[in-house]
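Structure tokens please, single chain.
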Amino acid sequence: MKIFKIMALAVVLMASMNTFAQEFDANLQIRPRYEFRNGYKAPIPYGETPGQFISGRTRLNLNFKQDKFVTKLTMQNVRVWGDVAPNTKSDVNGIQIFEAWAQYNFNEKWSTRIGRQVISYDNQRILGEGDWAQQAQSHDALSVTYKNKKSQLDVALAYNANGETDIATPYTVANYKAMQYAWYHTELGKINMSLLFLNTGYENKLVAPIPTPTPELKVDYMQTFGTYMNTKGKSWDGNLWFYGQTGKSTTYTVSAFDAALNFNYALTDKFKAGLGYEFLSGKSQANTSTDIKSFNPIFGTNHGLNGYMDYFYVGNHKNSVGLQDAFLKFGYAKNKWQFALLPHVFNAANTVLDASGNEMNNYLGTEVDFTFGYSVHKFVNITGGYSQMFATDTMQRLKSGDVDHTNNWAWVMINVNPQIFSFK
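Here you go.
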């Protein structure tokens, strides 16, 4: 027994010596959200009753750093209250690994990261975390970063498969087969500018002239490229972006773009106003070709753009007539409170036809979003909002439902995010 005590003491002493160069922290997130959906994402069909539910996300984040080595592990469970009975033996969704990556810092400028990770840049129009969704968004990827005082270059790649296989097997997950990107950010005086090139490949199963045991697999690639810029003065700030998309397969070509401009001005220390406009290209319903002219934000955090009711680009409106979004922004903050009002005017970016083939008015509708936030504690905050859509017959033509019905959405969310352990 004495030898075991000596060994245990030695382990403790060695661990104590090593901990001087280590940093470790753990934090927890509990985020329940109530939603009332009465025409969310699309006008509610005639005679239907609005949906109501409470969803939740529970996360445990573990961060570790020692010398040149950094790791992060984030485990999460996403649920809807009631989807698991009180006496159940198992969870519907179980525990998901949201992030699990290791990073090695070669020196102050160069580093590499591998594993499941969040990929998020600029205003998250193209690549974002999608944090509004309880499950959010992360990727399995390998990235390399070069960074100096004013510039940063990230290059990354990803390659996906259903599982371990000995022969070529079609990739059946609704996701890209392969991805590569380069993101460069620099400061040009008072202007911050980013350049992005993203190459995403989607696998198609081709029918071979002579059937073979292994199907012929082909990956069609689409390129998204462009720039994001922002600047600010003493009482104002502004940003703009432009992205194009190209690509080609045996049956179609891709040619699309997205352009936007935003400007904000602080009228007082507490009150801020702004306006903006975004144009996302689309395809006329009178165009019968197979070509793709509708811009796709791909991995963007789309809930934060084009209205909070998510009528556009949140798992919908892709390969459609595009969108013109003109909006105003009003924000007020005092003490622990924050309020915002955002009216949007939506128009189709291309021709919409009625059932008889006649061209319809491009005006889709107006959405008014109101949100609030209150900081209860440094670890606790409450946010909520109310949105109403005043849609037109053209919107109904695109998304069905009943635009004569009141279409609105309300939500309240509590975010509890304490740090439960920290050690240096």
